[in-house]
Specification:
This protein is an alpha/beta fold and 623 residues long. The protein is built from 24 helices and 23 strands. The protein is globular, with a radius of gyration of 25 Å.
Length: 623
């Protein structure tokens, strides 16, 4: 080793480099990598853990309970930090690595950064086949780590120690690029982790990363402004990119100045508060009657930071065929979709430039008035469904109403797959910006509790809201992935988990029956079990208590409110369970295209097929 080099193992060099990367949040320099979730096995415990143990003050390691949930917690953290700080998930080889693939898909679909590190087989192949190696007879270079390739933005396998010198900066640049943002994966061959190399000292110099803000093409802005000025009934769709660009205020000011109502995607919900003067509700299949009514008559739609997923567009039945789209997006791939007039650029910078170019132009006066009247009617519908009734079993909407009432402005609601996305997107009334996280880009069951843990960690320090994550999920999702309640107990992170027990997978049962198939294998009573008339009941409160959480089971909405107030004063995680209605839903008025059999022995299915054909006849295809 010379003064210009540092002799380290590859694992030691990897960890040292990670601890010397920084970012700025609210003007304060902070570590880019806030911590690492890790489960050690023979593929990483002897080398990577040796390196991590020595840097706990700079890069704390948190022991997870499941590799998938660790990475989901990292995703929740990245969402809470609005992609400005990153967590790492590290696992051994084999099943530990493949467990993370689902989480990688979740980050990929949602355009979120997380660094995934997994052990790998031996680069020298001398001990082959090693424990947990999945052999491909015709290609010895393939391991389970190759399964990450379709679900990450950056993939590499380190077989020589010097390769990290070029690989690591590329991985970070990818994760921080607004256009390419997504997960990065690096496989670490077991024997390569142990090898020493004389690394250039300059490689470990501190680096402060800044997220770029690409400016749009001037001609594209001019065309977009010309089209918008021609609009009689314009509308803005605000997506998740608005939040990640920190463009909420700019979009709100733009909309107010030019008289254009704003509706939100699921990922974009929370950019505006519920009662903001230009806010007209969530759009699409799990959206509001107000937003969908505005969409149906809109002639020019300014879509900002959204990939226009089918739940936003009603499978492209929500808009008039002649409606024209302007798509503002940092990612060219998303901006050019659906023949939109594409404006490729950062949301904040692009909207600022469009505002200047529009000058004093204002949409027709009645546009915002119509939006406000429609939204007022939507609020009346919410009030109606959230109000207490004499029903012995509360609905999701009523549970959400109580949670919303107790929530402090800086508390964040978290949900994902199952029945909760539709109900929370419709019913939750955001009090402060960026206090809503519904993972529906990948609709990943199991995201909720790990994400709550990640959000709880992210509430601390610069950029943190200081509130309490409030997780809402169903019994089916709880049974699928709940072990991070114990993780939060270990770390002392506070979150509130509300489990709505409706006896199985209720929302998919709803879709199944709506399309004509008799209830089958979704609600517990319709499954192949020993006693379908009286399915075994899980005491979720006692289960959570067994993991060290504070917990209560409640029967009524009044008891739920009392329990939530009690939970707000607890340290660590609190779990509250309540039986809920499997059949009561807030109505929606948007269509969704799903597969329905062309022929069936069920008359209800053939009728549903006719209805599905009618939906497809309304779709905007090739227009």
């Amino acid at each position: 080793m010379s003064e210009r080099t540092v002799r380290l193992t590859m694992a030691q060099a990897l960890v040292r480099w990670l601890t010397h990367q920084y970012t700025e949040i609210d003007g304060e320099r902070v570590p880019l990598f806030a911590g690492l979730f890790g489960i050690f096995g023979h593929g990483n415990v002897t080398c990577l853990s040796e390196a991590l143990e020595q840097v706990q003050d700079q890069l704390p390691t948190y022991r997870g309970q499941n590799e998938q949930s660790m990475a989901l917690a990292a995703i929740g953290y990245a969402k809470a930090k609005r992609r400005r700080q990153i967590m790492i998930a590290a696992t051994s080889i084999g099943p530990g690595a493949s467990n993370m693939v689902t989480a990688a898909g979740t980050a990929m679909a949602n355009r979120l950064p997380v660094l995934l590190l997994a052990g790998d087989t031996f680069a020298n192949r001398l001990p082959d086949p090693v424990l947990q190696q999945v052999e491909h007879f015709g290609n010895p270079t393939i391991t389970v780590n190759d399964t990450f390739k379709p679900v990450v933005r950056y993939w590499d396998r380190i077989s020589l120690p010097e390769q990290i010198i070029t690989s690591l900066p590329q991985a970070v640049a990818t994760m921080l690029d607004p256009a390419d943002c997504g997960p990065a994966f690096i496989g670490l061959a077991q024997d390569t982790q142990e090898k020493a190399f004389d690394y250039p000292a300059v490689f470990f110099e501190p680096k402060v990363w800044h997220i770029p803000r690409p400016r749009p093409d001037r001609d594209a802005v001019a065309k977009a402004v010309e089209l918008l000025k021609s609009a009689k009934k314009p509308m803005i769709i605000a997506g998740g990119g608005v939040r990640y660009s920190l463009a909420e205020d700019i979009v709100a000011e733009f909309a107010a100045k030019h008289g254009i109502p704003v509706v939100e995607t699921i990922a974009g919900k929370g950019g505006l508060t519920h009662d903001h003067p230009v806010h007209a509700g969530p759009i699409g299949i799990v959206g509001s009657t107000s937003a969908n009514a505005l969409a149906a008559e809109a002639d020019v739609i300014l879509a900002v930071g959204t990939r226009l997923q089918d739940f936003t567009t009603g499978s492209w039945t929500a808009f008039a065929r002649e409606a024209q789209f302007i798509s503002v997006n940092a990612a060219r791939f998303d901006a050019v979709k659906h023949r939109a007039l594409s404006v490729v650029g950062d949301a904040r910078e692009t909207m600022t430039e469009m505002d200047t170019a529009l000058g004093d132009w204002v949409a027709p006066d009645e546009r915002l008035k119509v939006a406000k009247d429609l939204f007022s009617e939507w609020n009346r519908i919410l009030d109606e469904h959230q109000a207490p009734t004499n029903s012995p079993v509360p609905s999701y909407a009523q549970v959400i109403g109580v949670m919303n009432k107790v929530a402090r402005p800086n508390d964040t609601l978290i949900g994902a797959a199952g029945g909760t996305p539709g109900e929370i997107t419709k019913n939750w009334r955001v009090k402060d910006p960026n206090t809503f996280d519904c993972e529906f880009g990948f609709s990943c069951m199991g995201y909720e509790i790990p994400a709550g843990w990640g959000h709880a960690m992210a509430q601390k320090g610069p950029g943190g809201l200081g509130g309490t994550p409030m997780v809402m999920l169903g019994d089916g999702t709880y049974l699928m992935m709940n072990s991070d309640i114990y993780s939060a107990v270990l770390t002392g992170d506070r979150m509130i988990v509300v489990v709505c027990d409706n006896g199985g997978f209720a929302v998919i049962n709803r879709l199944q029956q709506f399309k004509g198939v008799p209830g089958f294998n979704n609600l517990l009573k319709d499954c192949r079990i020993a006693n379908p008339e009286n399915p075994p009941h899980v005491d979720f409160a006692k289960h959570a208590e067994a993991m060290g959480a504070a917990a209560r089971h409640v029967e009524s909405l009044a008891d739920l409110e009392e329990a939530l107030k009690w939970a707000q004063g607890n340290d660590g995680p609190t779990v509250i369970s309540i039986v809920s209605d499997a059949y009561a839903w807030v109505p929606g008025d948007a269509d969704w295209d799903v597969g329905v059999p062309e022929v069936s022995n069920f008359k209800a299915v053939t009728e549903a097929r006719k209805a599905q054909d009618a939906i497809r006849a309304k779709q905007r295809v090739g227009v």
